[in-house]
Fold Enolpyruvate transferase domain-containing protein.
Amino acid sequence: HLRDVTTMIELLGTLGVEVVVDERMNVEIHANTINCF
């Protein structure tokens, strides 16, 4: 189970998803960089 946002971001990163967090804590997920699924 995903219990927090940090864990979710780390898991997405292992799939090759580009995750960007800006200074306002907005999260952008760029799925076009996925290299494994």
About this structure: The chain has one domain: 1-37. The helical segments are 5-14.
